[in-house]
Design brief:
- This protein is α/β, with parallel strands linked by helices.
- Helices cover about 35% and strands about 25% of the residues.
- A 6-stranded parallel β-sheet has the order 2-1-3-4-5-6, with helices on both faces. A 5-stranded mixed β-barrel has the order 17-18-19-21-20.
- Helix 12 runs parallel beside helix 13.
- The radius of gyration is 23 Å and the shape is globular.
- About 45% of the residues are buried.
- The chain binds iron/sulfur cluster (SF4).
- The site of iron/sulfur cluster has 10 residues, from helix 6.
């Protein structure tokens, strides 16, 4: 059968879709990006915010009208897990619903899908880590590998623990096999994914040890990871980031708020002071490390004083960049029961102020890099200007640069000559055609 998969949401969903494609191909099906010829169409969905969920429901209803009458339509992922069989009445003509712990059933589901048979598979299984799934079939230069599933933190605003279940670590041998397979398929830069990778544990293998094992893989240039929770970022992990040559000097460490009262209400399990001390220790041990974060404005009960505390924390830490959101109620979370008392206009205003502040800080940090030499993994032509190359520095910064000729997949030494708020500009000075050889002149 020809299968069409559409993915919404986070990198974890992208990783799951890639895994499901491998499953389907090894079960004898083929993949298509042409809706008109698809026998089965499935949407991998996101429910992180109400708006994301409504978007998926809207898309499913639209797809039903677009695809062949006898084609089967299904939804998988976090909306499937949260809403379950209710979706069959929400979306007319929907044939199957598969939750986040039931993907191993998908080859069988698509085999039997359609023909009026409705199928709902949303039982949760906290032991399911998909460790025995077929290996990857394609890879990108920079690609992702899930090392954990689920989360035990229950931050009060977050739906993830309810739709992805309890945390579990993928066996390190499985992770190793997948990374090696992706390197053979051309990957050079891997991001290890988990809701909170710090908690990774496979027997005696901690996350720091896992980084060490992956660091020994030849053909791999860089290792990144996301996301870390400030409550358990250990000395061992900080030392591993500082000591392992392929592990990039970039840590994404969501803080969410600078007010202790709001952090308590968010159930984040650390204080502002803990966070500041942790950043101090990280910067002492990893010179030049980039720190990025997540911030939520307008959380229930957030006073203007609480908000000022978030701004002052951002000024104190000076993050390299940040993902910034205004709070939106998520049904089913403990914060969903709180009085959403910050007016929408105030939420929007506070978000605007936060973004302006961060933009200024990021621009100043980028201006401070003008004249320096950065090691950039060339990804390909820049989307905005195909005559120039695009890539990322070790600290995750976007760099657009002049390079005499095609150099995708190579490590390039780029002299920074200028910047905009979110992007650095430069010129290639040296390149490393092959990871096993030294840098040559351009
Ligand atoms: S750590 Fe908190 S915000 Fe992150 S996925 Fe877990 S519950 Fe959600």
């Amino acid at each position: 059968m020809k299968i069409y998969i559409e993915t919404y949401g986070c990198q974890m969903n992208e990783c799951d879709s890639a895994m499901i494609r491998s499953m389907l191909v090894s079960a004898g099906h083929s993949l298509t990006s042409d809706l008109a010829e698809a026998d089965v169409v499935m949407v991998n969905s996101c429910t992180v915010r109400e708006r994301a969920e409504q978007r998926v429901l809207g898309r499913l209803r639209h797809l039903r009208g677009l695809i062949a009458k006898d084609a089967a339509l299904g939804v998988i992922g976090c909306v499937a897990q949260r809403m379950g069989k209710r979706l069959l009445s929400e979306v007319r003509g929907l044939d199957f619903v598969v939750g986040t712990d039931r993907y191993a059933l998908i080859p069988d589901v698509v085999e039997k899908a359609g023909h009026g048979l409705k199928r709902v598979e949303t039982d949760q299984d906290d032991s399911e880590d998909y460790g025995d799934c077929p290996g990857p079939i394609t890879a990108s230069l920079s690609d992702f590998v899930s090392v954990m599933r689920g989360c035990n933190n229950y931050c009060s605003y977050c739906i993830v623990p309810y739709v992805r279940g309890r945390e579990r670590s993928v066996p390190h041998e499985t992770v190793l096999t997948e990374v090696k397979a992706l390197v053979r398929l051309g990957m050079r830069d891997v991001t290890l994914l988990g809701q909170n990778v710090n908690s990774y544990r496979d027997g005696s293998v901690t996350f720091a040890r896992l980084l060490g094992i992956i660091n020994d893989i030849s053909g791999l240039a860089r290792i990144r990871f996301a996301t870390s929770h400030p409550k358990d970022l250990s000395e061992e992990l900080i030392d591993a980031i500082a000591g392992l040559d392929k592990v990039c000097e970039h840590i994404h460490l969501p803080v969410q708020s600078g007010s202790n009262a709001i952090l308590r209400r968010m159930n984040r399990s650390y204080t502002r002071e803990d966070y500041v001390a942790l950043i101090g220790n990280i910067r002492k041990k990893i010179p030049g490390v980039a720190v990025t974060t997540d911030v939520i404005t307008g959380f229930p009960g957030e006073t203007s004083e609480d908000f000022r505390a978030t701004l002052s924390l951002m000024e104190e830490i000076r993050f390299d960049s940040a993902f910034m959101f205004r709070y939106s109620v998520r049904e089913g979370t403990s914060a969903g029961a709180l009085n959403d008392d910050v007016p929408e206009a105030t939420k929007i205003e506070r978000l605007k102020t936060t973004i302006e502040l961060q933009k200024g800080i990021t621009t100043a940090i980028n201006q401070g890099l003008i004249g320096t030499l950065l090691e950039v993994l060339a990804d390909g032509p820049s989307k905005r200007d195909a005559s120039r190359m695009f890539g990322r520095s070790r600290s995750g910064k976007a760099v657009v640069f002049e390079c005499p000729d095609e150099c995708a997949g190579e490590l390039i030494h780029v002299r920074v000559t200028g910047c905009s708020a979110w992007t650095l500009h430069g010129e290639a000075e040296a390149r490393q055609k092959d990871l096993a050889r030294p840098f040559d002149g351009c």
